[in-house]
Amino acid sequence: MVHSLNVVERCPRRRQPRASIAIRSLSLFGGAVTADGVSIRVRGRLRSRVSIHGLRVFGRPAPPRTQHTVLAHWGSLTVGRSLIAGRGTRRRVQAAVVIHLLRARAGLPAGTTLRIAFVALQLPRAAARPIRRKHSRPLGHGPLKLTPEPGLRGYVFPVAGASSFSDSYGGFRADVSGNWHHGDDVFAAIGTPVVAVATGTVNRVGWERIGGWRLWVRDRRGNEFYYAHLSGYSPKVLRTRRVRAGEVLGFVGNSGDAFTTPFHLHFEVHPRHLLYLHYDGAVDPTTYLDHWSHLKVTRAPRPTLPALPAGNPGHEARFVFGELLAARGLTRHAPTTPPRIRVPGHDVATRPFTTALAHEQPGGERHRVPFVPLTLALVFALSAGVAAALIRRRRDAAPGAVGSNDA
User: Fold this and answer.
1) Exposed, middle or buried by CB within 10 Å (0-12, 13-18, 19+), for 126?
2) Is the separation of the CB atoms in 144 and 136 below 8 Å?
3) What is the pLDDT of residues 6-26, one digit of tens each?
4) Cα 48 vs. chain centroid, distance in angstroms?
5) How many CB atoms are closer than 10 A to CB 97?
6) The overall pTM is greater than 0.85
7) Domain range list for the chain
8) Which residues of 330-348 are buried (b: 16+ CB within 10 A; e: fewer)?
9) CA angle, 82 as apex, 81 and 85 as ends, to 5°?
10) Is the domain defined by 147-369 classed in CATH 3.30.450.40?
């Protein structure tokens, strides 16, 4: 129920847009997500204040400032301030609650994005133009404000299949350079094919501590694109450097520091004239992702991996790869025993995202006890019972036997 709604108004002196919206008794998807109140107030083009009261997910209280909360197997919830770019560079949407559907739900197709309590703002023309700077000191010290044209045609969306994403570029990240998010996260089911956005070359294929299984694609103009948290690779990526736009590179997963998060692809755009900034030369990929064409169907090869990293990362990589094979229908069962690993920026992780999902979400599939350990436990219990019965029988028979011998 909408409690109040104010349209965008301009202050005649400051010329700053103002808007507010408040919603009470929010209930979505049959009560899967509920809230006592959701509101957003906008003061200025990029300043907003979000208030969320009594937020509950599947009947359980949810933290008011979490980045992503999984919604069973069909979606994810993002709360708090969210900036989402629309078609073109002059439109910004500020939303209090965003729900991404990874599977069809309530008559809505997979890939649908729901924005609750949002305000669309039109930026002035001066702010919409790409900022072209060369070696200016502010560059590389935080999120960049420019989105230059790549200079080529025929770019495609990096995930082939149902997916959703929001503009999380520039958000706080404790374990990366500068403590800010250098790209966007594209959420999709594990095993969804990841494709080359452009024709060019691949490099730096392999394991990285934070990115997990990752790779870079360089187009013919020298622009570079970073893919992270894959669950496996296409065999061709490990054999050759040349790739074509739309060709399968790997598969969506949650390797690296994403092991306890929903499955997604972390994607970055590094324009060629900002490569001197190294990793901090990443620009906001949202505008590009909004315009690039999506591939609906693609023939995916059998997944493969290079040599596994040593230690805990190898255990994690093996577990995620087992989930990938099960998702692609190449094995009958997914792995049920998660590794005990240390995720960068977190404590020791005893349960990955999929295990936590099955135990915490209503209707989730509980992990089955393996057949062999269960059988051994039953045999041991029966053996112990038989042994106890024999001991009791001998104790009962002992007095009679001694008396007969004395006689």
Assistant:
1) exposed
2) no
3) 434 444 445 555 667 788 788
4) 25
5) 24
6) no
7) 1-125, 147-369
8) eeeebbeebbebebeeeee
9) 150
10) no
